[in-house]
Design goal:
The structure holds 2 protein chains of 2 kinds. By secondary structure, chain A is mostly helical. Chain A contains 5 helices and 3 strands; from the N terminus they run H-H-H-E-E-H-H-E. Chain A is 65% helix and 7% strand. Chain B has 2 domains: 125 residues, TolB, N-terminal domain (Rossmann fold); 269 residues, 6 Propeller (Neuraminidase). In chain B, strands 2, 3, 4, 5, 6 and 7 form a 6-stranded mixed beta sheet that branches. In chain B, strands 10-9-8-31 form a 4-stranded antiparallel beta sheet, with no helix packed on it. The chains are: A mainly alpha, B mainly beta.
């Protein structure tokens, strides 16, 4: 027990001594560090100040201002905001149309070319065949030497020349082509409008909760006003069913739908969907 | 059948302008309308015991036409249109708000009166569609709430509400041999049950007078002999009006309340008679050797519709009261009975047997179309609500089980059951008038 306690005390003393030694060395080191840090910070401060002064010096001097201040010249223009898009669309559609036209034309030309080629081929073959036959006939004739009429069956009906074919094609088909294209365009617009309209119908149907006083054959006609984003801005009652609850249910259905999908094509939107009529006439009620 | 009609020429390349689109909507989903009944603001300290908001909420839900928003989902609790943030409610897909405030005020007699102001607010249009201020005593709070439900229902459906009406029915309880029969009346939502009559002998065929202050019924209380009685609800006094030999049954008040149609056999086979309540004179309306029973008046009071076996099977007939000429009304099926005419006089509801199952059916007399309304079995005693859009009937929860009441809308769209804790429930009769009416200030 005792030696152990002695040992511990001795260890403690040595530790204290060691600490004293360490302390004096640390102090010197710390002082050095401190001086170094101080020096560095002073240098940095000077550097910052120097940079500042340097920048100030290089600030641009006030130059003589032009007499005219900068302004935006605004003039009232009756510009449709959709004009640009429309024009672009028109242009692209024109281009597309042109493209399609030329494509069709090219197709037709190619077809005509092929036809002509085929015909030429046919002709050539026929000529060759005829030639062959004639040769054979001639051979037979010469062999037999009986018939005085040596002339064989001539080329029976000559097909029209390729030039003729092309001419005919272009003359008659150019117009047909145009009308066909116009029709196709109309059909797509019509179909597009129908598709959007049926979508609107579906959405309204889903929102339409009819009151129990509703009867088959009741009619409410509403006029719906949309903005190009498809939002409903106004609903007018054009003709009433004489049942307030029924009228209200129809108006509420449109209000609840809140927003419809409308065509991005602003021409189609303006002509068909900016203002449209909605007729509510239930047919599936049990009473 | 999806039909899509575009009336006006849509687009064709040349004629883009002035073509206005018309879309025709012919179908709907008939979803319940989403409403929120906001807790009513309380002005002053004394709070009425019954929560008006909860009663209105339950009424609208029970009607099957509305879906209500739980309070927990409400983002705000406005009490008038000025406090409403439309967008909040639109996001919750709520179409209408019912809100208001309750306060206590002294009435002319110095009693405390409950004053309720309510608004029906259209969230999508941002307008108040209806508003009223009504008042009543503390006992009337439920009636005030039913009144609010009625106003809202009528405004939104175009049909008079029946939340403030009552239902009369008969119950039988207790073991066989010691059965108790009761004639009860309750609010249309099943609350506030009152027993008008209690007896050890069966009570049958309870029916309301047109003003709703008298009830006619059949009772066997006099030594087990059937008699027809009229009960005054105000005084709770019963008066026997008919007790002839044999069958006395199926009383029905005329629309003016001055006559009472009934079935009497008078020792022979049952026929329809009319008792004039002022002169106490009896008039025989039908005469046939087979049974005529279950009379009910047409709304104009000029005809009586009844069930008769004269064709071999029970069918519905109609007798004109001026010249007693007869007309058969039903031809479909081999069992049609217990008919009553709807307020419009254009159709009747009745019990109709199809594939050996008894259903409640609606017969359109003009178009001759029969429509089965119920899917339950052993349905009996249909009684039409005063607004003509609902009917209540007795049925069984399961074959051989206790009788319960169930209700169905005339278009067949809404069905619900009213389970009872009172044993067998039979013969419901919907009251023709409201329990209490309030005049808005």
């Amino acid at each position: 027990m005792l030696p152990a306690g002695k040992g511990r005390r001795a260890k403690a003393r040595r530790f204290v001594m060691n600490a004293g030694v360490l302390k004096s060395g640390d102090l010197r080191q710390g002082l050095l560090n401190y001086v170094a840090a101080l020096g560095l910070s002073i240098v940095l401060h000077f550097a910052v100040v120097a940079v500042l002064f340097y920048n100030w010096k290089h600030q641009p001097e006030i130059a003589a201002v032009d007499a005219d201040p900068y302004y935006i010249g605004a003039t009232t223009v009756t510009e449709n905001p959709h004009r640009a898009r429309e024009q672009l669309q028109l242009q692209t559609s024109e281009q597309r149309r042109e493209q399609r036209l030329s494509q069709i034309r090219a197709e037709r030309a190619a077809a005509a070319e092929a036809e002509a080629l085929r015909r030429e081929e046919n002709e050539r073959r026929m000529v060759a065949e005829n030639e062959e036959r004639r040769k054979q006939l001639a051979a037979i004739q010469s062999q037999l030497e009986s018939s005085p009429q040596a002339e064989p069956v001539q080329r029976m009906d000559t097909p029209a020349s390729t030039a003729d074919i092309r001419q005919g094609l272009e003359g008659s088909d150019e117009q047909a082509l145009m009308t066909e294209l116009a029709e196709r365009q109309a059909v797509t617009d019509d179909e597009k409008a129908k598709a959007y309209a049926s979508q609107i119908k579906r959405e309204v149907e889903q929102m339409w909760s009819r009151p129990p006083s509703a009867r088959n054959g009741m009619e409410v006609l509403l006029q719906v006003h949309l903005v190009p984003t498809g939002e409903v801005v106004d609903v007018h009652l054009l003709s009433s069913s004489d049942n307030d609850a029924f009228d209200r249910s129809a108006i509420q259905a449109v209000r609840k739908a809140d927003r419809f999908q409308v065509p991005a094509d602003s021409q189609l939107f303006e002509s068909t969907f900016r203002v449209f009529e909605l007729l509510f006439r239930p047919e599936d009620l049990r009473l | 059948m999806k039909r899509f009609v575009l009336y006006l020429a849509l687009l064709s390349a040349g004629q883009l302008v002035f073509a206005e689109l018309r879309i025709e909507v012919t179908e709907g989903v008939d979803n319940a309308v989403r409403v929120a009944v906001v807790p009513f603001a309380i002005r002053g300290r004394s709070v009425p015991e019954t929560n008006i908001r909860d009663v209105v909420d339950a009424d609208l839900t029970l009607s099957g036409r509305f879906e209500t928003l739980p309070i927990g989902q409400m983002l705000s609790l406005p009490s008038s249109g000025d406090d409403v943030f439309q967008r909040d409610w639109q996001l919750l897909k709520v179409e209408y708000l019912i809100m208001g405030n309750v306060s206590l005020a002294e009435d002319t007699l110095g009693d405390k009166a409950v004053v309720v102001t309510f608004e029906l607010y259209n969230v999508f249009r941002g307008v108040v569609e209806a508003t009223q201020t009504i008042s009543g005593s503390r006992e009337d709070v439920r009636d005030l709430a039913h009144h609010i439900s009625d106003v809202v229902f009528e405004e939104l459906t175009g049909i008079r509400g029946v939340f403030a009406t009552q239902i009369l029915y008969v119950t039988a309880s207790g073991p066989v041999g010691d059965r108790r029969f009761r004639l009860n009346v309750a609010d249309a939502d099943g609350y506030r049950v009152q027993t008008l009559l209690e007896s050890r002998e069966p009570i049958m065929s309870g029916t309301w007078s047109p003003t709703g202050d008298e009830i006619a019924y059949v009772s066997f209380e006099d030594d087990g002999r059937p008699g027809i009685y009229v009960l005054d609800i105000g005084t709770r006094r019963s008066k026997r009006v008919a007790q002839f030999e044999g069958i006395n049954g199926a009383p029905a008040f005329s629309p003016d309340g001055r006559q009472l149609a009934m079935v009497l056999s008078r020792g022979d086979n049952p026929d329809i008679y009319i008792l004039n309540r002022e002169t106490n004179r009896l008039r025989r309306v039908t005469r046939h050797y087979l049974t005529d029973t279950e009379p009910s008046w047409t709304p104009d009071g000029r005809y009586i519709v009844f069930t008769s076996d004269r064709g071999g099977k029970p069918q519905i007939y109609q007798v004109a009261l001026d010249d007693l000429s007869l007309e058969r009304l039903t031809f479909e099926g081999d069992y049609n009975a217990r008919a009553s005419m709807l307020p419009g006089g254009q159709s009747i509801v009745m019990v109709h047997r199809r594939n050996d199952v008894f259903h409640i059916a609606l017969l359109d007399l003009i178009r001759g179309r029969l429509m089965v309304l119920t899917e339950t079995e052993l349905d009996e005693s249909p009684s039409v609500a005063p607004n003509g859009s609902m009917l209540i009937y007795a049925t069984q929860e399961r074959a051989g089980g206790p009788g319960i009441l169930a209700a169905v809308s005339i278009d067949g769209g809404v069905k619900f059951r009213l389970p009872s804790s009172e044993g067998d429930v039979r013969e419901p009769a919907w009251s023709p008038v409201k329990r209490k009416t309030f005049v808005p200030r």
